[in-house]
Recover the amino acids of this structure.
């Protein structure tokens, strides 16, 4: 199908390799986009609270969730490439395309070369994601999330509901004007149970303060019960300010997560080990960043070794596909286990590289070693002729 006696053999080989590469590439793109959409939709539901309770706009919500795409892609690309290789090569075997190429003299490794090239390209993409894009995007994501959760402007109070804004403080507002002014305010402060305080005001607003957000109220009263004799004291005011310090975290107190840090910040953290509780977790994250892109090559070589090593069966490769999937699942589980236990036993950090490289080398050996070349015709037993 691919080879023509009227054309140069090397040109035909190049066309065949480009054909296989295109098939695998577009299947990888399709599977990666499908998986990314599914993961993105499921993960974005976690941030609906940003719109409902924090007043985030739809563009901010979309931007917030898009910042997580590099993290999703780093996990999805090896799986998508492996799935595309299994499906693409199995389809070409069923269509007898690879059988014709094998019969024309192609070795196992020659058949696998387009998939290996694709896996190598996606491995470089994976390193770009893990080394640069993931820490940059996740740092922006955490900064924006921190701002939305701790900025005074996002302290949203629902109308007609008693809002427990923090421990011991409940706020009620009757309505909110189009300009953002609060109408019909009731604030109950029970942080000191022996001296509860209740404040009521006709209107007010939330503004920024040195220690955090504060509620500025107008035309109201302040009621306090003295705990020693139960006397009620009543104070009428024209303007009154109530501090909500502690409602938001003060700036510059957030310790960067491991996924926010670049490689040099993971391996050479400025904080001492006694200052960062997950100091070993930082180093394991660094090793995982360097080892995880190699999983693309490991997965692809595993699939190719199972599909192409030996004779090609045009009736289906299900007996080879299932073990290949099982091995890939075991590799992924071993990688995650090495990262998890490496936080307690730092010596296991190098094990992640072994887990990623061993299937790759084993797959290369299985493809290079062609058992057909070692087959020799069976020797015929010497026939005994009667002597006269």
């Amino acid at each position: 199908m691919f080879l023509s006696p009227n054309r140069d053999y090397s040109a035909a080989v190049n066309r065949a390799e480009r054909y296989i590469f295109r098939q695998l590439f577009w299947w990888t793109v399709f599977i990666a986009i499908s998986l990314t959409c599914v993961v993105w939709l499921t993960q974005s539901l976690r941030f609906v609270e940003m719109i409902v309770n924090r007043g985030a706009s739809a563009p901010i919500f979309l931007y917030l969730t898009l910042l997580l795409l590099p993290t999703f892609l780093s996990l999805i690309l090896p799986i998508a490439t492996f799935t595309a290789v299994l499906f693409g090569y199995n389809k070409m075997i069923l269509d007898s395309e690879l059988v014709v190429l094998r019969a024309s003299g192609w070795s196992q490794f020659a058949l696998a070369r387009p998939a290996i090239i694709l896996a190598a390209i996606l491995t470089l993409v994976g390193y770009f994601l893990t080394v640069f894009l993931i820490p940059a995007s996740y740092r922006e994501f955490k900064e924006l999330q921190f701002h939305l959760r701790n900025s005074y402007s996002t302290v949203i109070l629902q109308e007609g509901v008693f809002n427990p804004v923090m421990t011991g403080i409940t706020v009620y507002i009757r309505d909110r004007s189009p300009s953002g002014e609060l109408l019909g305010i009731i604030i109950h402060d029970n942080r000191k149970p022996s001296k509860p305080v209740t404040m009521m005001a006709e209107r007010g607003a939330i503004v920024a303060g040195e220690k955090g957000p504060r509620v500025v109220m107008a035309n109201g009263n302040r009621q306090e019960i003295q705990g020693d004799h139960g006397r009620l004291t009543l104070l009428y005011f024209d303007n009154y300010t109530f501090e909500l310090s502690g409602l938001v975290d003060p700036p510059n107190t957030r310790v960067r997560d491991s996924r926010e840090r670049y490689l040099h910040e993971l391996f050479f953290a400025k904080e001492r080990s006694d200052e960062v509780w997950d100091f070993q977790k930082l180093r394991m994250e660094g090793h995982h960043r360097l080892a995880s892109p190699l999983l693309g090559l490991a997965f692809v070589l595993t699939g190719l070794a199972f599909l192409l090593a030996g004779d090609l069966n045009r009736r289906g490769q299900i007996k080879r596909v299932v073990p290949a999937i099982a091995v890939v699942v075991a590799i992924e589980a071993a990688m995650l286990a090495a990262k998890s236990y490496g936080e307690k036993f730092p010596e296991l950090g190098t094990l992640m590289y072994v887990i990623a490289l061993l299937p790759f080398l084993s797959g290369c050996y299985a493809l290079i070693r062609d058992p057909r070349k070692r087959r020799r015709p069976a020797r015929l037993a010497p026939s005994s002729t009667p002597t006269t």
About this structure: The chain has a mean pLDDT of 79. The longest helix spans residues 108-150.
